[in-house]
């Protein structure tokens, strides 16, 4: 099964298969559950609250791409 990884200057974000859908994660924190990986990438790029970031708490400041083709494919 495949998932997606984006390395930002604050650390890696993942979009991985979850229970009945997909999960966006940062570190050990789940940032949300989504019906498809593209929905997760869209929300991360537009801004999700992530209190564990060292600068601010909004993912929109990290230049996370909306296009999944710009994410690295990881096998899980």
Could you write a compact summary of the structure shown?
The protein has 1 helix and 5 strands, in the order E-E-E-E-H-E.
Key traits:
1 helix; mainly beta; 76 residues; 13% helix; 5-stranded antiparallel beta sheet
What does this 3D model show about the protein?
The structure is a single chain. The protein has 76 residues and is mainly beta. The chain has one domain (2-75). It is 13% helix and 41% strand. The chain has one helix at 37-46, and strands at residues 2-8, 11-18, 21-26, 29-34, 72-75. Strands 4-3-2-1-5 form a 5-stranded antiparallel beta sheet, with helices on one face. Strand 1 and strand 2 (11-18) form a beta hairpin. The longest helix is centred in the middle third of the chain and has 10 residues, at 37-46. The mean pLDDT is 89.
Topology, element by element:
Layout: E1 2-8, E2 11-18, E3 21-26, E4 29-34, H1 37-46, E5 72-75
Antiparallel strand pairs: 1-2, 1-5, 2-3, 3-4
Q: What's the main sheet like? A: 5 strands, antiparallel
Low-pLDDT runs of 5+ residues are: none
Spatial strand arrangement across the major sheet: 4-3-2-1-5
Radius of gyration, in Å, reads: 11 Å
The end-to-end distance, rounded to whole angstroms, is 6 Å
Record field, number of beta strands: 5
- Helical/strand content category: mainly beta
Mean pLDDT: 89
Q: Count helical runs.
A: 1
How many structural domains in the coordinates? Answer: 1
Beta-sheet strand percentage? 35-45%
SSE arrangement, N to C:
EEEEHE
Helix content range: 10-25%
Instruction: Tell me, briefly, the overall form.
Output: globular
